[in-house]
Amino acid sequence: MGKVHGSLARAGKVKSQTPKVEPQESKKTPKGRAHKREQYTRRFVNVTTTPGGKRKVSFRKAAQEP
Q: Region (Disordered) spans which residues (predicted)?
């Protein structure tokens, strides 16, 4: 058996200390064709170009998307 980092008595210490947060309700993400459509609009329609011709994700849109 290999060496263990630290004693196993402290295993799971941090997880047990963190406060429990209830999961928030979120809108369901589109699946299939609708998801591909959303990806296309995000990548090619709402895109901003920087000097030099490089495409860059618009930060305002990216910040809103979870």
A: 1-39
